[in-house]
Amino acid sequence: MLIPLICAFAYSNFISIQKSHFLNPFKIFAIRKWELCLRTFKQIKMSTRFNMDEVHPAAYQAGAGMEKALQNSFLTPIQKELIKIRASQINGCAFCLDMHTKDALKYSETPQRIFLLNAWKDARELYTEEEQVILAVAEEVTLISHKGLTEETYQKAKQIFNETQIADIIMAAVAINMWNRIAISTHMAVAG
């Protein structure tokens, strides 16, 4: 937020400089600030490097096939979106966060639950016991290199879900992690 404000100030100074022929050191500084702002803004604004579905369609379609296989899972649309949003938060995927928060809202998820999802352990009263276990599994699968899917979390999942359902949760987390990695590495841009 600060960079656009600084750039707006620098731009207003730059415009006034263009209108006058007299340049003093302060106005030269304003020009340099404006040039710096332009450079910084270009670095911040990401543009998509390439479209994976066009460059590697077979692999992309295989990923889409995984999503299709999960359509018939026991997970509700909201549970699927919670997994997608939480994994995308952990991975820092703006494109997927934008997409899946909008999708969750379409499925009537509350803004409060979406806003507090990254702190769900401190807001347990907002999430069902099932959702808490789903989120715990999704987090551990997303952070697989830390400690894997721990025995404690797996046992909690076994108390509520059968093997097929646990597999659905794991595969939903694996799928969004794949999409996050594609979106982040190719700089998929968030739609305005």
Shape: globular
Number of strands: 0
The CATH homology group name of the largest domain = AhpD-like
Order of helices and strands: HHHHHHHHHHH
Number of helices: 11
Report Rg: 23 Å
Gap from first CA to last CA: 16 Å
Our count of domains comes out at: 2
Largest β-sheet summary: none
What class would the helix/strand composition place it in? mainly alpha
CATH overall fold name of the largest domain: AhpD-like
**What share of residues is helical?**
over 70%
Work out the strand percent: under 5%
Low-pLDDT stretches: 1-45
Organism: Chryseobacterium hagamense
Protein name: Carboxymuconolactone decarboxylase-like domain-containing protein
Pfam families: CMD
Domain Carboxymuconolactone decarboxylase-like: 65-138
Q: What can you tell me about this protein's structure?
A:
The protein is mostly helical and 192 residues long. It has two domains: 2-44, no CATH class; 52-185, AhpD-like (Up-down Bundle), CATH 1.20.1290.10. The chain contains eleven helices and no strands. Helix 8 runs antiparallel to helix 10 (151-160). The longest helix is centred in the C-terminal third of the chain and has 23 residues, at 163-185.
Topology:
Elements (H helix, E strand, L loop, with lengths): L1 H18 L5 H20 L7 H4 L1 H14 L6 H15 L2 H13 L4 H5 L13 H14 L1 H4 L3 H10 L2 H23 L7
Helix pairs in contact: 1-2, 4-11, 5-6, 5-8, 5-11, 8-10, 8-11
